[in-house]
Structures are given as C-alpha cells and as structure tokens.
Amino acid sequence: MRIVIAEDDALLREGLALLLRAEQLDVVAATDSPAAFLSAVDTHRPDVAIVDVRMPPTHTDEGIVAAVEARRRQPGLAVLVLSAYVEQAFATDLLAGGADRLGYLLKERVGRVEEFLGALHRVAGGGTAIDPEVVGQLLARSRPDSTLSRLSPRERDVLALMAEGLGNTAIAERLFVTEGAVHKHIRSIFAKLDLAPDDRADRRVTAVLRYLDDSRRG
C-alpha cells in the first residue's frame, strides 16, 4: 500500500510516517501543504492519501479542497481525512461525491493504533470509515421530524454503525445480536428510507449519506 501524508503539524506528520512504516506500509511522501500534497499525488500515484482538514494558509478547509482535487486527478484514490474536531459539514461535503474509499477520523483516533489501522485498511479496500464520535454527534443533532424518525432505536444503532463503515458481522458483534437480526434491521432501514433495490446504487452507502445529510440539515 503506497501512502501520501498531508499534515502541517511536524510531530504528527512524522509520527504517522513512523507508525505506518513500522507496519510495513510504503509512505512515499509526507507533505506539509496542499500544494506539496497534490504534487506528491501526481508524482507517486499513491493508493491512499491521509489528509488533515485544516492546512495552511488559512487553516480552514484547505485539506478537504485538496482531497477532492486529488480524487479528481486520480479517480479511485482512497482518502482518509483527519480532524482535531467534529466538523460535520466537512464530513458530508467530502462524502457528497460518494462514500466509497473515504474515511473521516478525529486525530485522537491515531493514538488507538489498531482502530486507526483498521480504518485505514477499510478505506484502502474500498469501504468507508467515519469516526464513531462524528457519527454520535450527527445522530444527536438529527431533527425529530426527519426521515430518520421512522427508524426504531435499534435501527438507528445499526445505521450509525453502518456509517462507521462496519460490516454486518462486526455490527452483530458490537450490538450482541445475531447476523440474521442485523440483516433484518438493515432490510427494515432500507424500506423505511424508501431505498428500493437498484443495481446502480449501493443502498448501504445511500442510507449512510441520507443519515449524514439529514443530520447536517438538523
């Protein structure tokens, strides 16, 4: 796995590089600005980019803008975005083009090495990884009159774990239920959110995007 890092904090940037190289992952570039990051993407054609949300010069959304541009230049590039805070607008903006091969984690998650590496591999493998804290705050902010109000508490739990990027087996283990129960809840979620079977769309991804968008509007 070839990785490019974009992080202006030198300690975190070098720490990430050391951690990933210790896992036998190929960090081909560790950059400190959006321009250097995009240049590295063009040069190295990485499999995954790890990008800080807030970067120079204004430390607002430069990382998100650079990540979107990197995926435009290299379609299919997996991107794992890191942020010091829950910034749901940035999460949903990044996911607007589709949730595959995308992750959004709080920086504190890096210190939980197994969780961080699990999210990295999930995103590299084509999945989605949304930080549980981000999911929790979005869920808390959802409107009582929203489409999500149709869901039962257990269905909301299942959808939240889907948003984190967990598969059915992992959801079953987290909720201490059978995989059959998880399948049943997911079918009910699709029905209540009016997501009919469609070969042109991944209903899991659509449900997660509906959830994130609804929470943002709330």
Structural class label: alpha/beta
**Whole-number tally of structural domains:** 2
Architecture (CATH level 2) name of the largest domain: 3-Layer(aba) Sandwich
| Mean pLDDT level | 83
User: How many DSSP E strands?
Assistant: 6
- Approximate strand percentage: 5-15%
CATH class membership of the largest domain: Alpha Beta
Biggest sheet features: 6 strands, parallel
Question: Please, what is the CATH homologous superfamily of the largest domain?
Answer: Response regulator
Instruction: Summarize the amount of helix as a percent range.
Output: 40-55%
Our Rg estimate from Cα atoms comes to 17 Å
Shape: elongated
Low-confidence stretches: none
Give the topology.
Elements: E1 2-6, H1 10-22, E2 26-31, H2 34-44, E3 48-52, H3 62-73, E4 78-83, H4 88-95, E5 102-106, H5 113-124, E6 128-130, H6 132-141, H7 153-164, H8 168-175, H9 179-192, H10 203-217
Parallel strand pairs: 1-2, 1-3, 3-4, 4-5, 5-6
Helix pairs in contact: 2-3, 4-10, 6-7, 6-10, 7-9, 7-10, 8-9
Protein name: DNA-binding response regulator
Keywords: DNA-binding, Phosphoprotein, Transcription, Transcription regulation
GO molecular function: DNA binding
